[in-house]
Amino acid sequence: MLLLYVLTVLSMVSWSLGCSCGETSLHQYVCGSEFVIKCRVQTVPGSETNADVYYVVNVLDILKQPSPHALPMGEVKIWTPGNDGICKAPLALNEEYYIGGSIDKRTGKLQTYLCNFRSKVSTLKDCQKRMIAENMFDCSCKTPECFQDCRRGRHVFIRL
C-alpha cells in the first residue's frame, strides 16, 4: 500500500513539473527554434480548454525560418496548448513579442509552447534585439562561449 502511495505522489510531482522551464540563453532559444518572428498579438483565445488554441498575431518581421517553408507577413495563427497545465504559452493582447517555435510538418501550423522562445520586445536589451535582428548566432556552436551577451562577454540567460 505504501508503495502505491509513493508511486502516486511521484507521478503527480513529475506531471506537475512537466512544464517547468530552466534558464536558457538567447542563443539556445533562437538556435533551438525552427522559426523566430517579431509580432504584435491581435487576438487571444477564450476560455481554457484541453484542445489547442491559437493567437492571431501580426508578423512584423521574420527573423528565422526553415528554407522550404516561407512564413507569411501579416496576420498568422500561433498555436499553443489550451491549458496552462499542458504547457500553454501565454501572450498578452496588443503586446509586441519575439516568438520562436516549431512548424508542424503535416499541417504547417506555427506552434509555440511554454518553454519555447517568447519574450516581450520591451523586456530585451537593445544589444539582444540587435543580435536577433542581425542573426548573430552560430547555431553550429554548442559551447558556452557562444552564449555570451553582445556587450560584456557575460552569459545572459532568459527565464520565461
UniProtKB/TrEMBL annotation:
Gene3D superfamilies: 2.40.50.120. One of its GO terms (biological process) is negative regulation of membrane protein ectodomain proteolysis. Keywords: Disulfide bond, Metal-binding, Secreted, Signal, Zinc. SUPFAM superfamilies: TIMP-like. Disulfide bonds join C19-C87, C21-C115, C31-C139. It is found in: Secreted. Residues 1-18 form the signal peptide. Residues 19-141 form the NTR domain. Pfam families: TIMP. GO terms for molecular function: metal ion binding; metalloendopeptidase inhibitor activity; protease binding. It comes from the Eukaryota. This is NTR domain-containing protein. It comes from Mytilus coruscus. The lineage of its organism: Eukaryota, Metazoa, Spiralia, Lophotrochozoa, Mollusca.
